[in-house]
Every structure is written in C-alpha cells, then in structure tokens.
Design a protein that fits this description.
The complex is a heterodimer. By secondary structure, chain A is mostly beta strands. Chain A has no helices and eleven strands. In chain B, strands 2, 4, 5, 9, 10 and 11 form a six-stranded mixed β-sheet that branches. In chain B, strands 1-3-8-7-6 form a five-stranded antiparallel β-sheet, with no helix packed on it. The chains are: A mainly beta, B mainly beta.
Chain lengths: 113, 112
C-alpha cells in the first residue's frame, strides 16, 4: 500500500531556479494538500485542493503554484526559488472534510542556496 | 492569526515513564487532532477528538478535549523507545481545509 508518494525526497536548488514537487495518492481521496514544515513552526498550509479541478490558497501561498492534474496527483511548483523557501514540504490527502484524518507523504527536503 | 501553543517543547524521559503534553489556544475549536511524526517521515494521526470533554484512548495513548474548547491534552503511559518523535496537535473550528491550525510540536526522547 503506497498511500501518498512524493518525489523527489531531497533537492538542492540555486536561487531563481524553478522546480515541481510531485505528489500522488492511491486512496481515491478527494482532498489533497501541500504543507511546509519549518523548525519550531509546525505545519503551514500552502495550497489545497478540495476536489479534482479546484485549488485554493492556504496560509502561505506566495511564491508557489499548484496543479490538480487529476484525482490522484497534486503538484507544487516553485517558479523562482528563494532561500526563504528552504523547508521540508509535505503532501497530504484526505477522504472528506478537514476534520477527518489526513494521510501524509514522507516529505521533500528542499534547500535553496 | 490563530496560534496553538504546545508544551513542553521537548522532553527527555526514561523508558517506562508516563508522559503528559498539552496544547492551548486563545481560540475555541470544534475538533482537536493529535499527530505523531517519526524522524524522516510524515505525520500520522493518533487520535481525533470532536466533542468538549471527550476522552479517547488509542492503546497507551489517551487524549482529552478540554472543557473550555481551548485546549487538549495527550498522555502516553509506560513509554517505550518507539514513542520517540514529534507530537503535533491541530485545532479546527470549521470543516474548511484552510482552517486547520497546527501547533509547533513537542519533541519526545525516550532513554532506554
């Protein structure tokens, strides 16, 4: 059972470079999320997709874009990476509304130099 | 914006000891979620609480939804080495996805 799969696991970017973080879930969940985790700050929501075809901003969307490619896949794009985007990024999915269990991927550790 | 405080920030305990941690807010929540994150992994849900005063157990873990709806508590009994990790609380007032607030986490280390 794969659950939520994120790629890559590690990435180093130079300032100004772009990249896309990939996420796929095999649980037929409607909702998907992207979070970033920084030391001492818990998880902060970047973007979410309540259902296929919809995306909405979370708490910290600036500098990011997302695409809900289909029900399984939700990608996060950094158009012009900045050192402030150095973080661990987690993709998650859930079957229903936000007060139900969210299943998380293993994370992508991104460093922008 | 809304914030959750978790205490303690970190704790080092002897294997076999009981653990208590809490999560507090100045805001009222309708749902409290407790997650655990193992090193190098994503968080995994431990317990969900949906009603003020609710006490729910999951094995050696017990969590309570505070009566004021502004706090929640997690207890771990007879700790074992695999309890090591970061414990996050999350509060939610509505069912909107952007309304889930995560605390900064409590880091637990268990000394064998």
């Amino acid at each position: 059972n794969a659950g939520v799969t994120q790629t890559p696991k590690f990435q180093v970017l130079k300032t100004g470079q772009s990249m896309t973080l990939q996420c796929a879930q095999d649980m037929n969940h409607n909702s998907m999320y992207w979070y970033r985790q920084d030391p001492g700050m818990g998880l902060r929501l970047i973007y979410y997709s309540a259902s296929e075809g919809t995306t909405d901003k979370g708490e910290v969307p600036n500098g990011y874009n997302v695409s809900r490619l289909n029900k399984r896949e939700f990608s996060l794009r950094l158009e012009s990476a900045a050192p402030s985007q150095t973080s661990v990024y987690f993709c998650a999915s859930s079957e229903g509304t936000a007060n139900t269990e969210a299943f998380f991927g293993q994370g992508t550790r991104l460093t922008v130099v | 914006g809304q914030q959750l405080n978790q205490s303690p920030q970190s704790m080092f305990i002897q294997e076999g000891e009981d653990v208590s941690m809490n999560c507090t807010s100045s805001s009222i929540f309708n749902t409290w979620l407790w997650y655990k994150q193992d090193p190098g992994e994503g968080p995994v849900l431990l317990i969900a609480l949906y009603k003020a005063g609710e006490l729910t157990s999951n094995g050696r873990l017990t969590a309570q939804f505070g009566i004021t709806r502004k706090d929640s508590f997690l207890n771990i009994s007879a700790s074992i080495p695999s309890d090591v990790g970061i414990y996050f609380c999350a509060g939610l007032f509505e069912t909107s996805y952007d309304k889930v607030i995560f605390g900064p986490g409590t880091s637990l280390s268990v000394i064998p």
